[in-house]
Write a structure and sequence with these properties.
The protein is an alpha+beta fold. Strands 4, 5, 6, 7, 8, 9, 10 and 11 form an eight-stranded antiparallel sheet that branches. It has a two-stranded antiparallel ribbon with strand order 1-12. The protein contains 30 helices and 18 strands. About 2% of the residues have low confidence. The two termini are 74 Å apart. Belongs to the TUBGCP family. One of its GO terms (biological process) is cytoplasmic microtubule organization. It comes from Paramecium octaurelia.
Amino acid sequence: MEYKQCLAIKNNRTNRYLTIDQNNRLLSSGCHPFFKHTECNKQREIFQILNAANQDYVGPIIMQSAVLIYNPGLQAYLCCQQNGELKLENIPYQEASHSKATKFMIQGTVNLKKAITENDDVVFKFNDANYLISELSLFCSWNGPTISQDSTWKLQRSNFPPLPDWFQQRPYISLSYLQSSDQLTQCLVKQNERKPIGSHSYQIQSIYLIEDLLYAMMSIEGQYIKKKNGSFEYQIEGHLEQSTCDLSLQQMVSKILPMCSQHDFIENYIQQKIKFENGYISQAFCSAIKELMQKYLLMVNQLDYEFNQGEITLQKFWYYTQPSIRIINSIYVLIQSLSKQIGGTLLSTITNFINTSTDPQIVEVYSFLLQKSFIPYMKQLSNWIYYGRIDDPFEEFLVAEKKIQKSSLETDYKNDFWDQRFALRNSQIPKFLEKYQDIILRTGKYINVIGQKESPFDNFLIKNQGHIVQNQDFSHLVSCFEWANKEIINLLFQKENIHKRLKTIKTFFLFDSGDFFIHFIEAAESELVKDIREISKEKLESLFDLAVRSIASNDAYKDDLVCYIDQYTISEQIYAIRNLRGIDINENKPPRNQKLKGIELFTLDIKVEWPANLIFSRASLLNYQILFRSLMSLNYLLKQLNEAWVFQKQLKDTGLHQKFLKQNFLLSRMQHLVKNYLYYVSYDVVEKNYTSLIQNLQNADNFEEVKEQHMRFSENCLKESLIIDQDFWKIFNKCTNFCSQFSSQIQKQNSSLMSFFKDDFVSKKVQINEKITELVSGKQFQTLYETFIKNFDEAYRELIKIIKIYISQSKTYVVSLMIRLDYQFDYL
């Protein structure tokens, strides 16, 4: 028994198990949790013994140790109450480990300090005086004054059915163990009082040897044929330096004795491996061997009948045992090679022996063992490919299930739920199923997603098991896979409508509809430009819902869209996704601006339920969110630049526009940068990849391909837009920051110019012209705009340079961006 192992605790008097009632009181009226049908009921009978000094220690439980009794289901510790009752309380480990009310001394009925086994009687001593006992009312208390049956307990593993007491009380139930006992040796006639076998005639020696051989074949020592100490090997008069037996008889017997030793070895193997902890397949294998041993014992019985009739000689004995010698030897050799193998590994070893054996009779024996051993594995396989369920307490099946809840998909940013929930257990794949391993894994996964849908195969594997194993014909698995694959594809494209979901995502996340931005920003701009602490979330959500319904009233999934103010900026989110995906990061985490506006943190999300969230995973939605936030901020920046441009054009009517030519030229170049990048993302990246995605989905013939194509689409959009490219985005961000600063400066300038037009412009044109000339020709004005032009030019050249480097690195998707940003090659 080990710390933190899930245990059931049985009282010796009541033969019942510790359990918890509705008031968290401890009783000894439960049953073993293995026999409970529901997990809800099981958790009240499952306990863990924790080390009082170290919560994480997982070594063997030692007598005379201070321990805590913990219920993992209720996450509570057993505590002693002042009235003598025992109740479970939800307290932290640190508090429990330092409290006298929760500490017990676990010790044996005999005062020894040793590791506790499943057979040991233990007591739980409290406060160095009293013991944990089961009262007549079956309630437990800590008032036991002495060690008694009421206060004696056994620790048993909760995931295995308990063995009956007689299994431990009768250690000599197996004949192979009986021979090693001192009690039997004392009952036998002393060696030195028996006449040597050589003192008898040849015929008498033969009779004695045949009789002893019959005993040895049933694992019982005879008068002259006995085992060597501590081994399975038999000898004639092994207590003598040299046997007195006739040499010809001795040679004849020596050919039969290895079969007796091998039989003992096989019986010992059966006794060890037929236990629950070795798994269903080992138990089935041992049962199959026992079935063969029944035939072996029948042969021994027939030989014994011939011996009693006086119709058998040692030569006949040798002749009759020839087939059994070969069969026993073949089983012995197989068992020797098995070592600690269980499950699929055991089946693979048997298969190897079948393939390498040339004797038809031996092949038939191995095939029989394989067929019988494969029965529990076949049941697990059928349960998996027909119902998508795994019942594998001993970890023997080729598919391992990791207890990951579907709710974890909401935080699965690595997109590994599908691969981790069910995965191949390579060590348990039988050799004859290796080429079907991927089909088996995927079939069960598909059925698990589809749910309780009637299969057309009606347990074909179980009904035709003999034929399938004998001929190793598992082509039926391919039919199951094709059916399950067809069902899950229909589920995705018909019931879940992934095409319509993609259209919704493209419309709103990737700005496929420009009307959405226009409607929303016009309605919500006054709210979005506020400090995030001043924004009304309810108002923002209402305006967003109004904008969505105004342009997409017929969209099937518009109600699944949600908007919110994120806690991270776009720069922080890009930094996180680089870090998450292992992209080299040569910069520190971006600094946090304390005065953030709503437009900088506004983002979208979409609610996706099971099983559509396997396709639209959190990782892919994160890609869409980053794209949305980037496009949203750039569209808003372009709106600000356009508003500045409109005002500058209004000056043309006044005849004053000539004074702002340099400003207008810089403004148009900034518009050119933002417009063409947005155009590149919308048409050269999103539209191109979306068209390719739709074509690939039409040709997709399995679930994994659909999932992969969608994930590739979101990743390609993010990669080709260069948003998560550290070098490009750093420089591009620098350019857009200059654009934003310049736009703000224009707005300030425009505000001051507007004050000149409040009066009658025609009557005061000369005076206003002089004031504007004075403003424009001022040194501060000239220096400011020259600085803007110089900084923007430098950043723009760096941007063109980095794009040129990407082209030289065969990143051909940026060629169109290069042409758009520098179509006259002014910056090359």
